[in-house]
């Protein structure tokens, strides 16, 4: 196929990275990102002068009809539904019913991410190692459950999680009974997503992420990564969508086979057996604990910021990979990644995650973009009269590569120092990838 049109559904750094991956393909002539962000065409125009890059802001990721209108307008050759709200809304099903060539799991298969109760029960049915849990739609029963836990084990660590999607804010850590009651109370503030919730054992260990692509029957592991969820260094502060990532994650190095066998293979097999084949990107959030590997969660899409640290290392044509997956022909596809390490550092606006400061000018990104072995992806950026301004919490991502984590960090961090957000409003973590640097 020549000059193929690809429509990507989503807005942030992940979708910018996907746009880059598709534009690299010899088959793709045009990429449309809905809603996207201004920085995508701003930064990719020069890299792909012969290709068209369009953003379509007039849509709502939770409203399939608004996205269907865009799909109809562009009659794309491929639609990649990359964002969780859009997947949970059933957009993939809607588009498929209309005859579009779509990549992403159906609404039912997306339940592995968007319905945490369904997901934990699925893991239980298939003996996938997980924390112990209970699920509730009723405060009194939930409180009785935790009273029993704390009377037996007063030092218990628990996680209380809204069953539905909450933009990364739905998991609350509680270290005693009062904190647990408060967390149960908080579930009401998540609207429909918090009407039912899970209370689960808190795991202790090191977290990692693994990304696999599946055509429903066969799958291939693409790579591993480590995300840094809290706002401040040393895993301190409130949880965010993710403040940085690196790939691959050394903690997974000697246990990749085990991770595959225990935590990935049973999902693909189990979902196929249950008549809900998983076709898309499976994202495992795992933890290596003293009692072995455990699942924290599964997601039904690429991680943000993990995608930014993984996709630039793919050594095969992404459009061909996704087409092979949609056709059910993944088994014969030669999926390759390079052996570099990449670190993705998020530049956020101060005030993130609750109240990021907006409308401040960003300077220095153009210079960073010119550096070899470096990519800059955008999220909360508005372009006005050729200048860049903050318009969201996570603003930009610097992705630096090296032959190992030490060189990748050495390349990435000085570049971060070249960027400013007006009024000293740039915030970033200084320890992305540091665990692996110490291990190296
Ligand atoms: P989630 O919203 O499920 O992605 O959870 C956000 C973060 O909370 C995870 O990345 C973990 O750091 C932490 N977390 C969630 N569930 C657990 C658990 N059962 N044990 C330990 N940490 C957890
Ligand atoms: N990296 C966290 C997420 O994408 O949910």
SS-based class: alpha+beta
- Second rung of CATH, namely the architecture of the largest domain: 2-Layer Sandwich
Count of alpha and pi helical runs: 15
Number of domains: 4
What general form does the structure show?
globular
CATH fold-level topology of the largest domain: D-amino Acid Aminotransferase, Chain A, domain 1
Overall description:
With 440 residues, the chain is an alpha+beta fold. It folds into four domains: 101 residues, 3-Layer(aba) Sandwich (Rossmann fold); 70 residues, Dna Ligase, domain 1 (2-Layer Sandwich); 128 residues, D-amino Acid Aminotransferase, Chain A, domain 1, CATH 3.30.470; 98 residues, Glycinamide Ribonucleotide Synthetase, Chain A, domain 4 (Alpha-Beta Complex). Helices cover 31% and strands 30% of the residues. The protein contains 15 helices and 24 strands. The strands form five sheets. Strands 10, 11, 14, 15, 16, 17, 19, 22 and 24 form a nine-stranded antiparallel beta sheet that branches. It has a five-stranded parallel beta sheet with strand order 3-2-1-4-5, with helices on both faces. Helix 8 runs antiparallel to helix 9. The longest helix has 18 residues. The relative contact order is 0.13. It binds adenosine monophosphate and glycine (GLY). The site of glycine has 7 residues, from loops. The site of adenosine monophosphate has 15 residues, from strand 7 and strand 16.
């Amino acid at each position: 196929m020549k000059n193929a049109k690809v429509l990507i559904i989503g807005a942030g750094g992940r979708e910018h990275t996907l746009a880059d991956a598709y534009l690299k393909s010899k088959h793709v002539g045009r990429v449309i990102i809905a809603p996207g962000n201004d920085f995508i065409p701003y930064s990719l125009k020069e890299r792909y002068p012969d290709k068209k890059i369009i953003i379509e802001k007039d849509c709502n990721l939770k409203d399939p009809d608004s996205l269907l209108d865009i799909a109809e307008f562009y009659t794309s050759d491929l639609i990649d539904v990359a964002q969780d709200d859009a997947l949970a809304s059933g957009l993939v099903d809607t588009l498929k019913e209309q005859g579009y060539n779509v990549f992403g799991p159906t609404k039912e298969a997306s339940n592995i991410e968007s319905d945490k109760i369904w997901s934990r029960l699925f893991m239980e049915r298939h003996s996938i190692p997980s924390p112990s849990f209970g699920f509730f739609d009723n405060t009194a029963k939930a409180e009785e459950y935790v009273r029993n836990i704390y009377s037996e084990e007063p030092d218990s660590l628990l996680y209380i999680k809204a069953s539905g999607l909450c933009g990364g804010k739905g998991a609350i850590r509680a270290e005693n009974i009062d904190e647990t009651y408060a967390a149960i109370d908080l579930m009401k503030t998540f609207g429909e997503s918090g009407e039912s919730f899970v209370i689960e054992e808190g795991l202790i260990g090191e977290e990692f992420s693994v990304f696999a692509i599946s055509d429903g029957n066969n799958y291939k592991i693409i790579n591993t990564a480590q995300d840094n969820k809290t706002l401040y260094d040393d895993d301190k502060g409130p949880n965010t969508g993710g403040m940085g990532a690196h790939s691959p994650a050394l903690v997974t190095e000697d246990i990749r086979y085990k991770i595959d066998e225990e935590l990935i293979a049973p999902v693909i097999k189990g979902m196929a057996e249950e008549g809900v084949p998983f076709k898309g990107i499976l994202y495992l959030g795992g933890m290596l604990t003293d009692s072995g590997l455990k699942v924290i969660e599964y997601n039904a899409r690429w991680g943000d910021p993990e995608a930014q640290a993984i996709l630039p290392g793919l050594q095969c044509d992404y459009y061909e990979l996704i087409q092979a997956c949609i056709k059910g022909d993944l088994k014969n596809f030669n999926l390759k990644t390079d052996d570099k390490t990449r670190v993705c550092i998020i530049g956020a606006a101060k005030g993130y995650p609750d109240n990021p400061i907006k409308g401040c000018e960003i300077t220095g990104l153009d210079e960073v973009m010119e550096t070899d072995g470096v990519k800059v992806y955008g999220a909360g950026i508005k372009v006005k009269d050729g200048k860049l301004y903050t318009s969201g919490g996570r603003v930009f991502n610097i992705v630096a590569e090296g032959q190992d984590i030490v060189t990748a960090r050495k390349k990435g961090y000085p570049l971060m120092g070249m960027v400013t957000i007006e009024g000293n409003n740039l915030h970033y973590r200084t320890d992305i990838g540091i665990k692996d640097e110490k291990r190296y």
